[in-house]
Design brief:
The complex is a heterodimer of chains A (about 160) and B (about 290). Chain A has about 160 residues and is an alpha+beta fold. Chain A contains 4 helices and 4 strands. Chain A folds into 2 domains: about 45 residues, no CATH class; about 100 residues, no CATH class. In chain A, a hairpin with an 8-residue loop joins strand 1 and strand 2. The longest helix of chain A has 26 residues. By secondary structure, chain B is mainly alpha-helical. Chain B folds into 2 domains: about 130 residues, no CATH class; about 130 residues, no CATH class. The longest helix of chain B is centred in the middle third of the chain and has 37 residues. The chains are: A alpha+beta (about 160), B mainly alpha (about 290). At the A-B interface, helix 1, helix 2 and helix 4 of A face helix 4, helix 5, helix 6 and helix 7 of B.
């Protein structure tokens, strides 16, 4: 076979395999991707109103907090509280409180361990917020806020 | 193919395996002590492992074999056929790691292109010629660039659907601020660069988003233009550096692959000297 034709056939076959493996097949598998064809859904969706769980801090040690503040804006907390993957942890905790409270306690322990230092006395609220990310980040505006419960950080046994 | 091109391709294969060894060592040092408990969530190539009692030992052996084949591949990059074995070992080993760890998907480029880099073999006599060598590299470049094209295609599809439904182009300028701010919420960032972009006028957001989509889509055209590969590779590195600075999303593996496959390309490149650019630009204004 002519080598140039061979190259074209390779390109077409690979394009089709890549397209089916990365874009079409995941639709039939509940959005699961087929290794190693990553489905490349990075930042493709249009702007939407989201509904997520957040934590608002009500009291922290002896600090006088006039208005409860969202975790990401609490400058008195250690920086780790604002780091990556805390968002996912809060979402898991929120879903557990909302749907299967049996698992919530374990998730709460691991979240508190990540967020606060030993010896801090903190009370906080778990809230569910409907918001548009741009408005929330730039103007702190959201559509609705439902409280799912107030918590006080458990004291360690030490 | 000229002699120097096959020498450059040999170096490219060396760089490729050098980078892969570095990443493999990094991942092995991080995850070799964690147990394999993916269960039914394991990716399809390693799902059979989940039911075995000695899955951890099997994965550990696989890691050692992977490193061994990588070292043999780098020793004799164009002659050894062990590169295919390396490609399959890395396919299975990283399937196991991706099943249990959050590695980030930037490494998929290395896994996919391994099979095409493995086809780069130089045999003095026989059916392979140096022409085959160039074709193998072109396939690896094609696979790498196709990823960007599909990312752009799906962004375009999403934009098109919203524009069609809402009969308005507003989504163009609202997409970037949306992704940027949601990323800030997810990562808990207070990044001055993201804040600067968010405070820019909406036409700037529209232009930037359109630029990203067009940039990714153009990768398809670049596949067929080997003379632009070097400049495109540099632009890809720059693109990922910007997303890393602004959104804290790192594509180090993809950046390295862009340097190895595109910036170090052995194929003749277009000249970017000032006189050439000027003479090309002047063509548009010349009246004959």
């Amino acid at each position: 076979m002519d080598k140039r034709i061979n190259q074209k056939i390779f390109f077409v076959i690979f394009c089709l395999t890549y397209f089916i493996g990365s874009q079409i097949a995941p639709h039939f598998l509940n959005g699961q991707f087929i290794y190693p064809f990553y489905h490349w859904k990075l930042f493709e969706g249009p702007p939407i109103v989201r509904e997520d769980y957040f934590i608002t801090v009500e009291a922290f040690n002896d600090l006088n907090i006039e208005e409860s503040c969202f975790l990401q804006n609490c400058h008195f907390l250690p920086p780790v509280a604002k780091r990556n993957r805390i968002y996912q942890k809060i979402q898991r905790f929120g879903r557990a409180v909302d749907q299967s409270p049996a698992q919530a306690d374990e998730l709460r322990d691991s979240l508190e361990k990540r967020l606060f230092r030993d010896g801090d006395s903190v009370s906080y609220q778990l809230v569910k917020i409907r918001y548009k990310p741009v408005d929330f980040v730039t103007k702190q505006i959201f559509y609705s806020k439902n409280s799912l419960g107030s918590f006080t950080k458990k004291m360690s046994l030490e | 193919m000229k002699q120097y091109e096959s020498v450059v391709i040999e170096q490219i294969v060396r760089f490729f395996y050098g980078a892969k060894i570095a990443f493999s060592l990094w991942f092995i040092s991080l995850y070799s002590h964690t147990s394999f408990q993916a269960g039914q969530h394991a990716l399809w190539p390693v799902r059979w492992l989940a039911s075995l009692d000695h899955s951890k030992q099997i994965i550990f052996t696989l890691a050692v074999l992977l490193l061994l084949t990588q070292l043999l591949s780098i020793m004799n990059p164009l002659k050894s056929k062990i590169k295919y074995t390396e490609a399959f070992f890395s396919f299975f080993y990283f399937a196991a790691l991706f099943s249990t760890q959050n590695l980030g998907h930037s490494f998929y480029g290395f896994i996919l292109t391994s099979f095409f880099i493995a086809s780069l073999s130089q045999v003095d006599c026989g059916s392979f010629s140096n022409e085959d060598l160039g074709r193998g590299l072109k396939r690896a470049q094609t696979v790498f660039l196709l990823g960007y094209f599909f990312a752009g295609l799906w962004k375009l599809r999403s934009l098109g659907l919203v524009i069609w439904q809402e009969k308005s182009f507003a989504v163009l300028s609202s997409s970037l601020p949306h992704h940027l701010s949601f990323n800030m919420i997810q990562k808990g960032l207070d990044n001055p660069l993201s804040e600067l972009i968010l405070s820019a006028p909406s036409f700037v957001h529209g232009l930037l988003w359109l630029g990203v989509v067009l940039f990714e889509l153009t990768s398809l055209w670049i596949i067929f233009k080997p003379s632009y590969h070097r400049i495109w590779g540099i632009m890809l590195v720059f693109f990922h550096t910007t997303t890393s600075l602004i959104m804290n999303i790192h594509f180090i593996e993809a950046q390295l692959l862009a340097v190895i496959l595109l910036v170090c390309t052995p194929f003749p490149q277009s000249s970017y000297s000032w006189t050439v650019i000027k003479s090309r630009a002047l063509v548009f204004f010349r009246r004959d």
